[in-house]
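Why do we care about 3D structure at all? Because function follows from shape, and shape follows, mostly, from sequence. That is the central idea of this module. The next example makes it concrete: a single protein chain, its amino acid sequence, and then its structure expressed as tokens.
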Amino acid sequence: MQRPRRRTLSVQSSVALVYFTALPALACWDDAAQRYQVSSALLYAIARTESGLNPRAINRNTNGSRDIGLMQINSAWLPALATHGIGERELFEPCTNIQVGAWILAGNIRRLGYTWNAVGAYNATRPALRRAYIEKVRRHLPATLPGSAPSARGMTFASLR
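And the structure:
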């Protein structure tokens, strides 16, 4: 009697699976960036930092809240999002999650200026935690997004203080 063969993914297949899982959302980065006047590369770097680009990511926090999806939208935002017809289920849709993340980042920028502090506020309220988060995001900043033309980015971070 033959033993059933176990099917395993090669490293290349695993990498391709992660990459192509994010592909449906690639057009969403630019849409959200234009709508909220933030950098698509910065949004992408935040998503890499927050979820490793996993649209199904859920993180349970010690305070009882949850972080949901690509941009790890905190469940504390759910009441405000409900007024726009967005619930927890919708946050697992990559484009919706990216739009919400861009909206949150844009709010931070309105409040704190176009600064790295506004980027840090996406994740943390305490200054020391913000600084650590900023460094993680900086490391994840791409020159361009995968599958998109560099000319479409038009981004610089020289104005971030």
